[in-house]
Amino acid sequence: MIKVQGLSKIYGEHIAVDDISFEVKEGHIYGFLGPNGAGKSTTMNIITGYISPSAGTVEVNGFVMGKDTLKAKKSIGYLPEIPPLYPDMNVKEYLTFVAKIKGVDKDKRAGEIERVMKATDIEDMAGRLIKHLSKGYKQRVGIAQAILGSPKVIILDEPTVGLDPEQIIEVRNLIKSLKGEHTVILSSHILSEISATCDEVLVIANGRMVACDTTENLLKNHKNVKTIKINVKGAKDKIEEVLNNIESLEEVKFIEDKGESCLFEVTCEAAKDVREDISFALSDARLLILEMSEETSSLEDIYLTLVKEADEAYEAELKAIREGADLDEVFADKDEAENEETEDTADTAEETLEESDSDSKEE
Ligand code: ADP
Ligand code: MG
């Protein structure tokens, strides 16, 4: 339904979106997840045809943006970061205005406006001026205008931002109800927001796509580590020695001396059950386990790791450029960004960096 290929957007010297490609299947809900400034809104603005990319192509519902732009745009309902509302219109006037712009047939307009007001639960607000609506209701009007005309694709940029918990649940349910009939992309910088509504998640950091998968697969495929907390009766050194000799453990960390006992934290592969190894080893040494609890790394941990890895890779590239590495080399193989070859010190590269540095500080 949506095909994005090699999308990039460069603002001056700053790369806001860096070579992103993905496909969105019909009827699915996709989530763009990433920290503030990651490039989510820019990507959405390009997909919806609001801004043009520096490179790459977007195809929506079979229409290529920039070629069949009008048809592509007609297939999309969009709620931008700041909803395009007219404060001096009342809700019904505004939706009538949107229906006209979207080319909804005159005899179908009233029915369509009723439908979207019902779907977003704003019927009671029909005659209210938009400027007098609460943030939650404004957001619902924003969603109502996005789904008006029943476009195949609905794109919602941070649809629950600034809403109270009750409103968040309502908006989430509304989004879920769009599934099937519509293909939906929504963005958020909050993981729970994405995992609550989306089938698939696309993680963006520093303008790059660092993961694109179902939440289950992310959990399954990512190097998943389990942490086990063990409280053992006895002396620190003796316990530590025993734990260090257990092969299935990856890391053994002393946490706290509790007087009679010591608290340790050990890690191992999530798929392994090491509880027997631990209890047999400790009991062989006549050490008593008082408590043992395990925690598998959550989606949140995986997300944070992905973003951290992306940040580190980005920083390494910046460092390499700063130290004068050939730009082509740096970007040809991002994994080898630490390459410190200092041939060909390009002044322009350094200038570029200083500028983009000050850009990022402004945020
Ligand atoms: P997100 O929506 O993930 O928070 P954005 O797409 O808004 O991120 O921004 C990505 C990056 O592009 C940021 O560093 C932002 O400062 C920069 N950016 C966005 N729009 C512009 C613009 N019009 N001019 C210059 N830089 C921009
Ligand atoms: Mg944004």
Task: Explain this structure.
With 363 residues, this protein is α/β, with parallel strands linked by helices. It has three domains: 2-212, 3-Layer(aba) Sandwich (Rossmann fold), CATH 3.40.50; 225-295, Alpha-Beta Plaits, CATH 3.30.70.3190; 300-362. 40% of the residues lie in helices and 26% in strands. The chain contains 13 helices and 14 strands. The chain has helices at 40-47, 69-74, 91-101, 106-119, 135-147, 165-178, 191-197, 215-221, 236-244, 275-284, 299-322, 327-332, 347-362; strands at residues 2-11, 14-24, 29-33, 55-60, 63-64, 76-79, 153-156, 183-188, 200-205, 208-214, 225-233, 251-257, 261-269, 288-296. The strands form three sheets. Strands 6-7-8-3-9-10 form a six-stranded mixed β-sheet, sandwiched between helices. Helix 3 packs across helix 4 (106-119) and helix 4 packs across helix 5. The protein is elongated, with a radius of gyration of 26 Å. The relative contact order is 0.12. The site of adenosine-5'-diphosphate (ADP) has 12 residues, from strand 2 and helix 1.
Essential attributes:
single chain; 363 residues; alpha/beta; Rossmann fold; Alpha-Beta Plaits; 3 domains; 6-stranded mixed sheet; 13 helices; elongated; disordered C terminus; binds adenosine-5'-diphosphate; binds magnesium ion
| Overall SS class | alpha/beta
Counting structural domains, the number is 3
> What is the CA-atom radius of gyration, in angstroms?
26 Å
Bound molecules: adenosine-5'-diphosphate, magnesium ion
Sheet with the most strands, sense and barrel status:
6 strands, mixed
User: Would you list the SSEs in sequence order as H and E?
Assistant: EEEHEEHEHHHEHEHEEHEHEEHEHHH
Q: Please name the CATH topology of the largest domain.
A: Rossmann fold
Query: Which percent range fits the helix content?
Result: 25-40%
The geometry reads as: elongated
Distance between the termini: 34 Å
Helical stretch count? Answer: 13
The CATH C-level class name of the largest domain: Alpha Beta
CATH superfamily of the largest domain: P-loop containing nucleotide triphosphate hydrolases
Tally of strands:
14
The overall pLDDT, averaged over residues, is: 86
* Order of the strands making up the biggest sheet: 6-7-8-3-9-10
User: Strand fraction band?
Assistant: 25-35%
- What are the low-pLDDT stretches, counting only 5+ consecutive residues below 50? 335-363
